[in-house]
Every structure is written in structure tokens, then in C-alpha cells.
Amino acid sequence: MLDHVAHFVPHIDAASSALETLGFTLTPFSAHSHRSEPGGPLVPAGAGNRCVILERGYLEIVTPTGDTPHAGQLRAAIKRYSGAHLIAFGTAAPEADHARIRKSGFDPLPPVSLQRQIGTESGEGTVRFTVVRVPPGTMPEGRIQFCRHHTPELVWQERWLDHPNRAAALTSVILCVPDAREAAQRFARYTGLLAQVSGSVWRIDTARGRLLFLDRDTLHRRLDVVPPSLPWIAGYMLESADIAATGDYLRNAGVSVHVLGSRRLMVKLPAAVGGIMIFEPKSSGALNFD
I want to staple 52 with a disulfide (CB 3.0 to 4.6 A). Which of 35, 59, 63, 80 is the partner? Predict the structure, then answer.
């Protein structure tokens, strides 16, 4: 299932302000730490984040904060473009996913234990999760990984689920790639799921959420968007609990809204965040790009 999408940004204050204008409630800033090997010391990762926690899934805004290999990877990605660079699939068995993707022809890195401190209404807690990744460049679209949450109750805190724009769930990720078929079939091997095609768009449906793969011409024709480079994680779709209220909120905030079919609303995100965001009503079905 789709767990979360992460933007890599150079200035987290500017990105946070832009998302708050769009009507999102953000978590406080939190610095990341990790263990590079099982049982090893906990060290700063050189990055930190703020999140938009949804009822299902979430958005992460990540920025480099130090001089570490991880921070260097973030800066290299940001140099290509500011925007979404990470797609995380939720898993209950990261070790099994590690073994499966190895058998599928990938060369996964050892599972990594990550953690960060987070405030709660009764004090402070430690968010812990395990991540399975492949080496940088293996998936040219970005950092594509599996994530197991060990402390979901600390991530999905009730106080962060209420967004004035009525966003409720992460439902799709849109990837603009040179060859939609190749990318979809590679992601199918990576996820163990089926890739399907409809017209010029390839898709993979997960247990919760879907991936949409399209080329530059299709993206431009249907959404009037030009990628800053290829491949590009162009953006994502969010389910709204009340699409009329979403539209009213965005327009009252001075946000330019593009109306698509089936009552969907597209926002071209400010440069501080990067990419596009499409709000959709419940049970709206697949977006037709043809």
C-alpha cells in the first residue's frame, strides 16, 4: 500500500508556509537519527522533517541539516528539482520484502532502523521505523522504499489529522517518465504487483492507493504541466472529505485552482514545495489521462 510521499526541499520554513497556506496542518520539525547497521550506534542522519498526517497515508517534507552521506543525497536530488523524490510502500514484513526484491533482480541495501523524537499531548515519544531501500540510482525516479512503522500511534496523532482544506487520504502518485511501460513493469517487479495499461497510461494498484505512469506528452496534454527533468515524481492525488469545501478554502486563500474532470481540483505547488497536487472526491474512480 502507499504509505507516504516525501518532498526534498532546501528551505523547510518556506515549504511549510506554502503548505499551511494550502490548508494543511503540519507536525513540528523533527531531526532524524539512524543506525547504519543492526546494533550499531545511533547517529544523526543529517536531515529533518515536518509531515502532513492524513487519515490514510501522509506527506513528508524533508530537508538536509548536516554534512552526512544522507544529507548529500538529499542535496543532489534537490539540485535536480525541489519536489517529491520519495515513495514509500507500507509493509508489515520488511525482511520478507528485502528477500523478495533481491530475488526479483534488485540489490537491496541492508534494512535500516530509523527514529526521531516527536511530541505527544502527554510528553515526548520516539518514532521508530524500519526501511528497506535499494542503492541510489537503482530506481531513477527517486528513493523508492518499503517502510514498517513500529510506533504508528505516534505518527497518526488525532490532533494532526484535521486539515482546513479537508484532505483525508493519499490515493495516487503520478510519475512522469521517458518510457511508461518500462517504468511500470520495473515497479511491478519491485512491488510484486501487476502493471496494467489503459491508453497511454500505465498503472499499478496497491492494497491502498495506486501509481500512475505517463510520458511527458501525456502529462502536458492532460494537465498542462511541463516536467523540470525526467524522470519526475510529478505529484499525487489526495482524497477530500468534502471537495466543495476544499475548493472554497483554496480559492479563499488565493490559490489558483484548475478544475479537472470528475470534480477533481489541481494545484500547481509553489516552487518552495514543487510539483502538483490533485484533490479528488471520495469514490471518484481512476483519472482519465487519454
Answer: 59
